[in-house]
């Protein structure tokens, strides 16, 4: 029989290391070994924040990359070079990272792993699938990660909801989803019109109310916790995002705190460690 300690060690945990346009990185795994999703902050900060929860970089099975924008890849070259952690993403995202002048060093050939969208693959005990997400990068994917029957899903930098994203939300036990901006704050905010148009376009970012409506339509009874990610500093506020999503869910008969938990991930600091049951 497995000891209580063994069970605890094998529990799935999630932590956001940073989430927003200044940098994104998430840990999903056990306290022993796991996966990093995106590495958009410095390798040093990732190392420090993981070590604070007892996870060492040597124990990472891999890094899953969503797309080649700097706020998702900034630290990945250094992590791969120093620790030889395999970097998983599509051929197009790998090519985009090669063209990204801001990314030095590049991910070495031996550390690259090429994956295909909508094709499941295993990394140790984790079953992983990348799914397409519309965004103005070279290519962009979300990830569904399954471990011991628990399904974790992340969709960030979402230009617009698609059928595939809706299906993935409906299958998730735990979900990280973008709530980038409040439409009014964006419209009245300081950004130049061109940038405002880019953010609001179907290949830009998901607004609070689009996120909320996407959730309201697709939340299933298995979904336990929704984490709102990639909040804009200029065009959003944590309480605005939280209240917009909570209200729209409530209007659709879904009570936050009862049917599911709702958390806004902080832009610059690490979240607490969440145990995923
Ligand atoms: Zn981003
Ligand atoms: Zn992006």
The end-to-end distance, rounded to whole angstroms, is 19 Å
Largest sheet: 7 strands, mixed
Strand order of the largest sheet: 6-5-4-3-2-1-14
Q: Using only CA atoms, what is the Rg?
A: 18 Å
- What compounds are bound to the protein? zinc ion
The quaternary structure here is: single chain
Number of discrete domains: 1
Q: Which percent range describes the beta-strand content?
A: 15-25%
CATH architecture: 4-Layer Sandwich
CATH top level label: Alpha Beta
What is the tally of helical segments?
10
The helix/strand order is HEEEHEHHEHEEEEEHEHHHEHEE
- In round numbers, the mean pLDDT is 95
User: How many beta strands in the DSSP annotation?
Assistant: 14
CATH domain topology: Metallo-beta-lactamase, Chain A
Q: Could you estimate the helical fraction of the residues in percent?
A: 25-40%
pLDDT < 50 stretches: none
Going by CATH, what is the homologous superfamily?
A: Ribonuclease Z/Hydroxyacylglutathione hydrolase-like
How would you classify the helix and strand content by structural class? Answer: alpha/beta
Envelope shape? globular
């Amino acid at each position: 029989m497995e000891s209580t300690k063994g069970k605890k060690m094998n529990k799935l945990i999630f932590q956001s290391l940073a989430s927003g346009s200044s940098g994104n990185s998430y840990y999903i795994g056990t306290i022993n070994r796991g996966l990093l999703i995106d590495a958009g902050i410095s390798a040093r900060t990732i190392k420090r924040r993981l070590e604070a929860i007892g996870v060492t970089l040597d124990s990472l099975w891999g890094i899953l990359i969503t797309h080649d924008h700097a706020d998702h890849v900034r630290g990945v070259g250094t992590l791969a070079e120093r620790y030889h952690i395999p970097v998983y993403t599509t051929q197009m995202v790998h090519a985009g990272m090669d063209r990204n002048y801001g990314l030095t060093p590049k991910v070495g050939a031996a550390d690259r792993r090429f994956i295909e969208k909508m094709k499941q693959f295993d990394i140790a005990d984790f079953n992983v699938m990348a799914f397409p997400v519309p965004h103005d990068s070279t290519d962009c994917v979300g990830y569904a990660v399954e471990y011991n029957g628990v399904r974790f899903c992340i969709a960030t930098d979402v230009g617009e909801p698609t059928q595939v994203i809706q299906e993935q939300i409906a299958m998730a036990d735990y979900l990280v989803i973008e709530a980038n901006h409040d439409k009014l704050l964006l419209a009245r905010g300081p950004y130049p019109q061109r940038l405002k148009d880019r953010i609001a376009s179907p290949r830009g970012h998901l607004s609070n109310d689009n996120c909320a409506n996407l959730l309201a339509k697709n939340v299933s009874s298995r979904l336990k916790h929704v984490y709102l990610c990639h909040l804009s500093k200029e065009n959003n506020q944590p309480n605005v995002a939280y209240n917009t999503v909570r209200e729209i869910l409530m209007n659709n008969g879904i009570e936050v705190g009862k049917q599911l938990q709702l958390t806004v991930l902080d832009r610059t600091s690490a979240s607490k460690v969440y145990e995923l049951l």
